[in-house]
Amino acid sequence: MIQFEKITHEILRLLKNKGYNVLTSNNRITDTDIYWYPEQIISIAKYRYNLNDRGYKEALGHPVIVRIQYALDNMKEDELRGMVYTTSRDTLPD
Asked: Helix %, strand %, coil % for the chain, to 5?
C-alpha cells in the first residue's frame, strides 16, 4: 500500500535501514505542506547535473534534498516538517 506518513526520526531510521539516504521534494522548504520522497543517491552533484540534462532549471526546478543522516543528527523531532512517501514495506507494524 502506498501512503504518506508524518516525518519522524523513527520513519527516517526505518528508511535509512532500507537503504535510502536522502529525501527529495519539489515543494519549497517554506511551503505549508511538504511532501518528501525517499531516494538512494550516490552523488548529489551528479544527480543535479542529470536534472539539468532533463531540462530542470537551476533556480526554479531543482528539488530540495535533505540527507537522512543529517536530519537524524541535527534536527529535533519538532523541526521535521512534512509527510514522507512510504509503502507498506517501509512502514512500521501497527
From this structure: 35, 25, 40
